[in-house]
């Protein structure tokens, strides 16, 4: 009998997995004919990343992928979400296909299938070919055609073996980090560029879905990171800040993809930097989707301030629990978001495509264990929050922990560890943390063991 008496069993066929991204784990970015990406370039620019860290080695997954697939199998994962490095496939971004790059992912997919692990493939997890950045990157309207061309190469090579495809990972982060604030590649800071980059990303999403309907026969969707915004007070100023923050982060990408329009507030946020868009663009952007992927990490308690252009900021919660990336642990926010998604956009199936936490982990102990109780507690609370949303009628089909492995946390380098598996960056030794073993038991019990007390 369980501790809570509650039945946490998840629906039949629920997909339990873990996620990674190419630049964060692969290493060997220029091997076998690959071209450089904006992240290779950015990380090699002095001052752009913590400690000057680059993805040159990362988790050496490009060479150790067999071992990593064996590890997933041992942990009992049913699904693996990974991304493809565009410039391994098309070193110049368009045109010439590099067969060795395709072969790498083809072998990976075969190994996953042989291990009974379903692949979820993300086309774009932030590593634009540098050659395309030289042509303007996401500021160039041709990017929609470039992206559809790249997608088609992969659909033709892998569709059928891969049955779940994702166009973009987190267009909000691509634009906010890459074009507005500059902390991520390509490192631009412009409120005039940001809306254009976002819009072209969404046009590229639409074009890649369209191409999939021609060349693929299974499922394709979009992955967004969203975060509920709660007001810091009941004053009108904070209510306005919440509305802007919600429009900017949560609706800016889902509205055009699902409803074919931007939220009204975008003009209020960007002022004269917000262009008039041709109506035909929305017909391209709004394509029927087979699912939407939601990445959830935290909430924000929001108040009005004078930051530019959003005029909204987050208030730290004195009694909150925070992770190493400074994000408040707030599982109820995930239930709230999933309910909001269904109310706003209807019955499109949902996957939680990322959820997880960076915490300080102790070193590997003599018994080879890594005790990471905070991570286990985090995952358990969020899985319970998803279960609550499913009970309330949201069609959630799967859950991917971020991340399978400790890895390169973009400009924060190797300083933040999100993995359920520890990576020793000197030896490349992988050691499953306690949270990985715990997750394996949750999967084996179809979620029922979420009712159990936390292990020691
Ligand atoms: C996601 N935010 O990034 C990415 O998909 C991963 O590659 C990354 O490693 C992971 O989350 C952990 O950071 C995000 O500021 C970055 O809201 C920033 C935000 C959200 C997601």
UniProtKB/TrEMBL annotation:
Catalytic activity: Hydrolysis of terminal, non-reducing beta-D-glucosyl residues with release of beta-D-glucose
A GO biological-process term: cellulose catabolic process
This enzyme's EC code(s): 3.2.1.21
Catalytic residues, chain numbering: 170 (proton donor), 354 (nucleophile)
Swiss-Prot/TrEMBL keywords: Carbohydrate metabolism, Cellulose degradation, Glycosidase, Hydrolase, Polysaccharide degradation
Major enzyme class: hydrolase
Domain of life: Bacteria
Family: Belongs to the glycosyl hydrolase 1 family.
A GO CC term attached to the entry: cytosol
Binding site for substrate: 24, 125, 169, 297, 402, 409-410
Transmembrane parts of this sequence: none
Pfam families listed in its UniProt record: Glyco_hydro_1
An annotated Gene Ontology molecular function: beta-glucosidase activity
Name assigned to this protein: Beta-glucosidase
Lineage, opening ranks: Bacteria, Pseudomonadati, Pseudomonadota, Gammaproteobacteria, Lysobacterales
Chain segments annotated as coiled-coil in the UniProt record: none
């Amino acid at each position: 009998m369980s501790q809570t008496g509650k039945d946490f069993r998840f629906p039949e066929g629920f997909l339990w997995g873990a996620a990674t991204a190419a630049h964060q784990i692969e290493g060997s970015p220029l091997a076998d004919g690959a071209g450089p990406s904006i992240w290779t370039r950015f990380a090699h620019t002095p001052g752009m990343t913590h400690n000057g860290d680059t993805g040159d080695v990362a988790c050496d997954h490009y060479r150790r992928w067999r071992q990593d697939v064996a590890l997933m199998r041992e942990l009992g994962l049913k699904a693996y979400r990974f991304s493809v490095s565009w410039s391994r496939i098309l070193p110049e971004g368009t045109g010439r296909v590099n067969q060795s790059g395709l072969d790498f992912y083809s072998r990976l997919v075969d190994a996953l299938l042989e291990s009974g692990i379903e692949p979820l493939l993300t086309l774009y997890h932030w590593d634009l070919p540098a050659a395309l950045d030289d042509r303007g990157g996401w500021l160039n309207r041709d990017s929609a055609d470039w992206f559809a061309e790249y997608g088609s190469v992969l659909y033709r090579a892998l569709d059928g073996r891969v049955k779940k495809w994702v166009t973009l990972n987190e267009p909000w982060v691509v634009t906010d980090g890459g074009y507005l604030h500059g902390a991520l590649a390509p490192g631009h800071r412009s409120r005039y560029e940001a809306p254009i980059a976002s819009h072209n990303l969404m046009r590229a999403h639409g074009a890649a879905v369209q191409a999939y309907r021609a060349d693929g026969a299974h499922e394709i969707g979009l992955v967004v990171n969203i975060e509920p915004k709660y007001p810091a007070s009941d004053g009108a100023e904070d209510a306005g800040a919440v509305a802007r923050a919600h429009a900017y982060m949560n609706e800016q990408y889902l509205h055009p993809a699902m409803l074919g329009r931007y939220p009204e507030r975008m003009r209020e946020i960007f002022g004269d930097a917000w262009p008039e868009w041709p109506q035909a663009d929305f017909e391209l952007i709004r394509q029927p989707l087979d699912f939407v992927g939601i990445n959830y990490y935290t909430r924000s308690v929001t108040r009005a301030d004078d930051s530019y252009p959003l005029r909204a900021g987050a208030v730290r919660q004195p009694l909150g629990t925070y992770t190493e990336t400074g994000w408040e642990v707030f599982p109820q926010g995930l239930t709230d978001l999933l309910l909001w998604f269904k109310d706003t956009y209807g019955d499109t199936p949902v996957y939680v495509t990322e959820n997880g936490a960076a915490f300080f982990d102790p070193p590997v102990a003599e018994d080879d264990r890594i005790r990471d109780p905070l991570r286990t507690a985090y995952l358990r609370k969020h899985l319970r929050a998803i279960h609550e949303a499913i009970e309330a009628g949201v069609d959630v089909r799967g859950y991917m922990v971020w991340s399978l492995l400790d890895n390169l946390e973009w400009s924060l380098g190797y300083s933040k560890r999100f993995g359920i598996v520890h990576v020793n960056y000197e030896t490349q030794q992988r050691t499953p943390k306690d949270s990985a073993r715990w997750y394996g038991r949750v999967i084996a019990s179809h979620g029922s063991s979420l009712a159990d007390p936390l292990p020691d």
